[in-house]
User: Which sequence fits this backbone?
């Protein structure tokens, strides 16, 4: 059993990334709980409430902070204070000679808070894993992470995000989606690249692979093509990509700067007329630029209906998790017009 709950409420202009997971530890048969990023501050509050109310516990096996952009890390303090977290996985720029990196202060604050509470702190580098083998960090390697820290010094492109608050309290139109929609009517696909790629901060993000009941779930955070390629090489070597994923979160909210045709082929396979799995994009209802139409269509052509979190209080994907009465059915994105807008 597993369930993957996307909790950015998807309101306002920018959507946070906040994912709660519950699954069966394949070694012990006991339920395990994880959190991957905490969105903005309000998303952190939603995560705490979700874990307590829906999972009926305040114990969390691991919390992964993929990278220190505000839409991913803003709620981390709330999560650490509100739940009993066994392991915090977070990169620490200062430990690699980059104490001046803008991610160092939040990381060290969270590490101090975690240590105060008896939480074990681990840096999420390739090969770090646990929970009976279900959880595996696919990337970055420490060497690539340090390369990305160095590159951030050069670009100093600050990813300043203004938290759009007031998510919680919105009426829930959450979803349980296993709609094996008929996937047709997509426009023909032409070659596409990653539009110049993404920034080194995004490429430093931890990429998570979950293997539960033989089903692969890939959560690449905001990583781009070079980082995802290294992660896939590693996952190939670990035998985790023997079958296509059942669930993929589109990298960086579905931006066209984070995926190209070759990489999407590698992850999802060639186009097909059948259903293979589900793709989710964490996007806000007021952000028209995500997901990129050509990325969403490419997933659709490969048997993956694309769902967005926009306008949902939370969005859930599960295997045989108990049905929740307040869920409704989600509708996948229709084929989108592939215009040439630049995001
Ligand atoms: Zn993001």
Assistant:
């Amino acid at each position: 059993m597993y369930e993957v709950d996307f909790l950015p409420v998807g309101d306002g202009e920018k959507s946070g990334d906040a994912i709660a997971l519950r699954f069966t530890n394949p070694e012990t048969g006991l339920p395990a709980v994880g959190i991957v990023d905490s969105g903005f501050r309000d998303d952190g509050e939603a995560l705490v409430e979700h874990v307590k109310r829906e999972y009926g516990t305040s114990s969390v096996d691991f919390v992964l902070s993929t990278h220190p952009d505000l839409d991913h890390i803003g709620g981390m303090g709330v999560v650490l204070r509100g739940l009993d977290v066994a392991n915090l996985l977070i990169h620490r720029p200062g430990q690699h000679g980059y104490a001046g990196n803008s991610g160092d202060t939040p990381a060290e604050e969270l590490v101090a808070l975690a240590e105060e509470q008896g939480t074990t702190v681990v840096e999420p580098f390739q090969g770090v894993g646990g929970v009976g083998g279900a959880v595996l960090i696919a990337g970055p390697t420490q060497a690539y992470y340090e390369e990305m820290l160095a590159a951030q010094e050069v670009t100093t492109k600050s990813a300043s995000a203004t938290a759009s608050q007031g998510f919680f309290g919105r009426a829930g139109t959450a979803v349980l989606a296993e709609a094996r929609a008929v996937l047709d009517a997509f426009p023909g696909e032409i070659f596409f690249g990653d539009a110049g790629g993404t920034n080194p901060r995004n490429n430093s993000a931890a990429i998570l692979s979950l293997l539960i009941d033989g089903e692969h779930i890939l959560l690449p955070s905001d990583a781009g093509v070079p980082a995802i390629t290294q992660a896939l090489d590693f996952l190939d070597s670990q035998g985790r990509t023997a079958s296509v994923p059942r669930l993929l979160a589109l990298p960086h909210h579905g931006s066209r700067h984070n995926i190209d045709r070759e990489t999407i082929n590698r992850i999802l396979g060639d186009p097909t007329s059948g259903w293979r799995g589900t793709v989710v994009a964490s996007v806000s209802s007021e952000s028209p630029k995500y997901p990129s139409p050509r990325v969403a269509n490419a997933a659709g052509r490969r048997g993956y209906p694309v769902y967005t979190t926009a306008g949902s209080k939370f969005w859930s994907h599960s295997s045989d998790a108990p049905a929740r009465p307040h869920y409704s059915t989600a509708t996948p994105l229709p084929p989108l017009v592939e215009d040439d807008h630049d995001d």
Q: What stands out?
A: The two ends are 36 Å apart (CA to CA). Residues 2-156+166-318 form a domain with the Metallo-beta-lactamase; Chain A fold (CATH 3.60.15.10). The first strand starts at residue 2 and ends at 6.
